[in-house]
From TrEMBL:
Cited SMART domains: HAMP (SM00304)
Protein name, as recorded: Sensor histidine kinase
Record's signal peptide: none
Species for this entry: Paenibacillus dokdonensis
Lineage of source species: Bacteria, Bacillati, Bacillota, Bacilli, Bacillales
Subcellular location: Cell membrane
Length: 611
């Protein structure tokens, strides 16, 4: 990031961003304040509506209570021909209280329809009409008894049950009326004798909603009546009546007692929804107010804030382009050359002109690059010398006692006048020494196999009938290059440790194959194997970044014990020469033998892929 961008970023981070945060916080606080204030105001309005609705319904409860008290419904149910009973006719001999109630019931403007179910009747005699209603057929009593509503009315034991429009259209019809259902008892001995069904017109309910005087902030508010199942029972605008609230509101609602208010999408518009549960009824008053209408002032503030922020940003861009460009241009050139140096190009030089501070900076940069270039050359030279020294040390760690044992065996053969065997042993030893003293670090795999065969033949002479061996390496792989003295220490480990104390003839199998750019050399024996704790000492393959202390402890333990030193030397040489992703894999278990896999890169496969 150049200096111009840094200065511009500093201006944005230290001025524009705090200004934006301040504006966002102010907007959020203002919105929350508006929402909270509106929520309190709506709660008062919904409580007032709830009180008005409850008053209307309780007035009708009082009317029917009066009818029960004056035994008017009892007398209607006790008539000989209840299907013809009508409170319009002068067929009953009534006292003054009963006649007054009959007049009140008949002349009540809100009552739309009323009838009785006779609990002691049967068939058509079960329905007792009080008011007639055109184009409406009363549900038979036998069908009504099958409804869950019947059990609920009976459980209320005379307490009125109110049904809103659209809740039970099969019983109340499709007109938007409120229906009261209650159990009628004979007052003298409280016997259940009938069920009263009274429908009232929704004039009073409509007047409650239409006569609201909303404030300026509530002019876009809609009120609805919703039951606990989410069915919209009453909508003054008739837009959503009879629908489920979940079909028009995004957020699911759990209805309960009390008041709740939240912001959500209602009919694809962001709105404030407030819900108040009516006491003693399974209904809820719902108010919906468009958030857009509530947040007009906040939106005006947000527009002004965005405009001011854009002006500040434009001023920052102008300042950055006009004043800072001349200062940062020269510094940007030096930064570009520094990135080239970071990429390993130490031949770059900055043209130093003038006599100001930028000239001093450019000259200091050039001097620093010269010093770094010199230091890198020294480090590379020392690193190569160190690596070669480590390889020579590791090669020298291969046990020398083999040479002394072989010379001792040749001496014994010479004493026994075994000239042919002496000649063969000397030839094999010469082949081993010729390959070992070569100055090359890598030799063809064919020469490594020749060296290994010479070693195995000498060992077979020394340990007669202890083991046999098999070499299975494809001819096309014998031209590959490997580090010299790679296989011999692995085979030596099999003979000295794998076949120690066995009562059967040992067998060594040497094989090789190529796999995805790698050469795998495998040495397998049928010796005594290793215990798990012994196998842990031979974890030479480094796949992850291991803990340095643990690694040093393992190495120290290996070198102190001296067992497996040749194998360790091979693993270290491979890792130093080829990298951390190559080395040895060892698989072994007690009494089942050991498999050692040497993994090295395939130079020919890599060259073929690069081309």
């Amino acid at each position: 990031m150049n200096l111009r961008i840094k200065l511009f970023t500093a201006f944005v981070v230290l001025i524009i961003v705090p200004l934006c945060i301040l504006g966002v916080v102010t907007y959020i606080v203002s919105s929350h304040s508006i929402e909270e204030k509106y929520s309190r105001q709506t709660e008062y309005s919904l409580k007032a509506i709830s009180y008005s609705i409850s008053t209307v319904l309780k007035q009708m409860d009082n009317v029917t209570d009066n009818g029960i008290a004056t035994s008017v419904f009892h007398m209607a149910l006790a008539a000989k021909d209840p299907t013809k009973q009508d409170l319009n006719a002068e067929q009953l001999s009534l006292n003054n209280s009963q006649r007054n109630f009959r007049s009140l019931l008949y002349n009540h403007p809100a009552i739309s329809y009323a009838f009785l179910y006779n609990l002691n009747g049967s068939g058509k005699n079960s329905n007792v009409s009080i008011f007639t209603k055109e184009n409406f057929t009363t549900m038979p009593f036998e069908d009504f008894k099958k409804q869950p509503l019947y059990k609920e009315v009976m459980d209320l034991n005379g307490v009125p049950k109110w049904i809103a429009p659209h809740e039970y259209p099969e019983l109340t019809g499709t007109e938007p009326v409120f229906t009261q259902i209650r159990l009628i008892k004979e007052l003298s001995y409280f016997k259940n004798i009938g069920i009263l069904v009274v429908q009232i017109k929704n004039w009073d309910i409509e007047s409650i909603f239409h006569n609201l005087s909303p404030t300026q902030s509530m002019q876009s508010t809609e009120f609805m009546l919703v039951n606990d199942d989410g069915l919209i029972l009453y909508d003054p605008n008739k837009a959503f009546e009879g629908q489920q609230l979940s079909t028009v509101m995004k957020k699911p609602v759990k209805f309960g007692s009390g008041y709740q208010s939240f912001k959500t999408d209602f009919h694809d518009e962001k709105s404030i929804v407030s819900i108040y549960h009516l006491k003693d009824y399974s209904w809820n008053l719902v108010s919906v107010t468009s958030w857009k209408s509530l947040s007009k002032e906040t939106l005006v503030f947000a527009q002004w804030f965005i405009g001011i922020t854009l002006l500040c940003l434009l001023a920052a861009i102008t300042f950055n382009m006009v004043f800072m460009r001349r200062i940062t241009g020269s510094i940007a050139v030096i930064v570009r050359f520094m990135r080239k140096v970071e990429g390993g190009d130490f031949n770059v030089r900055v043209e130093d002109r003038g006599k100001d501070e930028l000239h001093i900076l450019a000259k200091g940069f050039n001097d620093l690059v010269d010093q770094i270039n010199s230091l890198f050359k020294q480090i590379n030279t020392k690193q190569k010398q160190k690596t070669q020294a480590e390889l020579r040390v590791l090669q020298a760690q291969i046990k020398p006692h083999f040479l002394f044992n072989t010379l001792e065996s040749i001496n014994v053969l010479a004493i026994q006048n075994e000239g042919v065997k002496v000649s063969e042993m000397v030839h094999r030893l010469g082949s081993i020494l010729r390959i070992s003293i070569q100055d090359k670090e890598e030799i063809p795999l064919d020469q490594e196999i020749e060296h290994l065969q010479s070693y195995l033949e000498i060992q077979k002479f020394r340990f007669d009938d202890l083991f046999d061996y098999e070499i299975d390496i494809p001819p096309e792989l014998r031209r590959r290059s490997v580090l010299k003295l790679t296989l011999q220490p692995l085979v030596e480990n099999c003979i000295q440790h794998g076949f120690e104390g066995i009562t059967y003839k040992g067998h060594i199998h040497i094989s090789c194959w190529a796999d995805q750019g790698r050469i795998i050399l495998q040495v397998q024996d049928n010796g005594i194997g290793m215990e798990p704790n012994q196998l842990l000492k031979f974890q030479y393959m480094k796949t992850d970044k291991e803990d340095e202390a643990v690694r040093k402890d393992q190495v120290r333990y290996l070198y102190e014990e001296r067992r497996g030193l040749g194998v360790r030397s091979v693993a270290d040489r491979i890792r130093i020469h080829y990298g951390e992703h190559y080395g040895l894999f060892i698989c072994s278990s007690h009494l089942t033998g050991t498999i050692i896999q040497c993994v090295i890169p395939d130079a020919e496969w890599r060259d073929w892929n690069d081309s």
